[in-house]
Amino acid sequence: MPISEYKICIFGSGGVGKSCLTMQFVQGIFMPKYDPTIEDVYKKTVEIDEKQYSLEILDTAGTEEFSAMRDLYVKNGQGFVLVYSITSRATFNDLQGYYDRIMRVKDTEINGQPPLILVGNKSDLEDERVVGREVGQALARKWKCTFLETSAKDHASVDQVFFDLVRQINRLPNISSNRSQPRHSSVENTGAVATRQITNSQSKHKSHLHKHFHKNRKDGCVLL
Ligand SMILES: Nc1nc2c(ncn2[C@@H]2O[C@H](COP(=O)(O)OP(=O)(O)O)[C@@H](O)[C@H]2O)c(=O)[nH]1
Ligand SMILES: [Mg+2]
Description:
35% of the residues lie in helices and 19% in strands. By secondary structure, it is of the alpha/beta class. The chain has a single domain (4-171), classed as Rossmann fold (3-Layer(aba) Sandwich). It has a six-stranded mixed sheet, with helices on both faces. The chain starts with a strand and ends in an 11-residue tail after the last helix. Bound molecules: guanosine-5'-diphosphate and magnesium ion.
């Protein structure tokens, strides 16, 4: 039976811990100084509810200047993680913009809301908390999505974020049409993206996956 491939995008303001969450999930390590300009796709194969899944996770970086690119990411994505830091109200407020963008690109009036999870990261920094758990919960209720507080540093509830999204994707009515197509789709020009050598075996297909994630991309170089 073919393994299901799901594409997941992580959005949120700079510094909230998107890369740390990704690294903690994919490689099981906390990277306190991950380059803030790197935007790339990472792969992890996981077993959830006795089924194997290949997850492609887009760790976004940078600004709204790359809006056309972003819209392509969103279009190809099947599940979305919206991250703020519990230590910054501004990062919480910023999420509405990302949410609206996703809803617009996904044409939710026709398709319904895509699988989505709201994440309040840095839960280990309780002393610096300025966004209450109930504030996050209220936003999740408004958006009708799930909510988790995580600590990428302590590996707290990190895996649950991705497991929850996979389960949400599985619950979609017409799941077959939401699955990725086989990976022999042709890629002519995928552009250049800042990359870093990832040594973990789970990430060794990274550049190939990057192409796959952006299989619809026709334009040229991306500077991040
Ligand atoms: N205490 C704490 N620091 C974190 C956590 N996640 C990320 N950080 C720190 O926050 C900063 C930004 O993290 P990064 O993952 O690069 O953020 P990104 O810009 O959203 O990708 C780094 O200095 C990380 O060490 C966390 O869960 N707890
Ligand atoms: Mg980052």
